[in-house]
Structures are given as C-alpha cells and as structure tokens.
Write a structure and sequence with these properties.
Elements: H1 3-13, H2 19-30, H3 35-42, H4 46-62, H5 71-85, H6 90-102, H7 104-122, H8 150-181
C-alpha cells in the first residue's frame, strides 16, 4: 500500500488520534515500513514512536470495544503494541506474559486490537481476503537509501499465530486457576 493511501485511510478511520499517532500507525501498520525508518522520518526517537503506535492502536481498539484499565494495563498495552512489530526483550516478554496470565482485561485488549486491525485492513479499498496471510505488498522506495520491507510483512503472520497461541494458553491458565479456586 502506498504511504499516502495508508495515511488517508488511517486518518479517516481514527479522526480523534493525533497526526503523529496516525502517521506512525499508517507507515508501520499499513505501509509496512520498519520502526527505525519511521522514527527517523517523523523526527522522533524509537521510544516516542513506540508510544505513538501504542496510542494509535489503543484508539483503533476502542473502535471495537472500550475497556477500563489500570496503570499496569497501560504498560501492557504498550508492550502488546511493540510485540506486533518486533520481538520483545526477554524481560519485557516475561513481564507481559505474567500480566496476561493475571489480567483478562488485557487479554481482551489484545484480542480486540487484532479484530480492530483486521477490520481496518478489511476497509481498505483493495483489502486482501486474509490480510495477515496475503503475500507482501509491492516494495515502496521512499528514498534512494530505503530498504525493502517485504521481510517484515512475511513475519507478521508468524507473530499473529504466536499471539493466538499465547491467548489460548492465557485462557487455559485462567481456567486452571479458576478450577483450582473452586
């Protein structure tokens, strides 16, 4: 998807989000550019890009379902957002997994975020039938030094499969805890 099309689509879908947050989601989430490249283009550090993506994805999830949350839930939402684009550090992965085992609200957030992302992609004018399993889109060269992003798209399907497995395990763990309490 071209950058201008991605930006227009996200702007139409998330009018309440800030321009930077919409740009971050459009360029990383739809156009498929690597985070480091988008951070450089937006003139922000990777931490600020991470925060912008998390805010945009939270706004996107809210189009499907509002959820209350705590301070730790806010941190977990950011880690969930980060995990959509790249593997987390071992420490962050452990923190997030522990939180998800104990917080059905954040498990629901992740599930709804995936649904909202699928819906956002499905509303694209040329949406593929299976957005995360479709072949990588044509490569976009933003500058002479731009890198192809097809590899990033190829790994998205694997990450969503991993997320699905994590969700199933989290629900199973919750069921075991509840069964033990009874």
């Amino acid at each position: 998807m071209s950058d201008p099309d991605a930006v227009r689509h996200v702007a139409a879908s998330l009018p309440g989000a800030t321009e930077r947050d919409r740009l971050a989601l459009a360029l990383v989430g739809l156009a498929g550019h690597p985070r480091a490249e988008v951070a450089q283009r937006l003139g922000v550090g990777e931490a600020e890009l991470s925060a912008a993506l998390s805010r945009a994805r939270k706004e996107l999830r809210r189009t499907v379902a509002p959820l209350p949350g705590s301070g730790w839930c806010e941190r977990a939402e950011r880690l969930i957002s980060d995990r959509l684009d790249a593997p987390l550090s071992d420490a962050d992965e452990s923190r997030l997994d522990t939180h998800l085992r104990n917080c059905s609200r954040c498990v629901e957030h992740e599930r709804r975020l995936v649904q909202a992302t699928d819906a956002l992609i499905a509303r694209l004018p040329t949406a593929p039938a299976a957005p995360y399993l479709a072949p990588a889109p044509e490569r976009v060269d933003l500058s002479p030094a731009a890198e192809p992003v097809a590899a990033a798209h190829d790994s998205v399907a694997g990450w969503y499969a991993l997320i699905a497995v994590c969700l199933v395990l989290a629900v199973a763990a919750l069921a075991l805890v509840l069964a033990g309490a009874v």
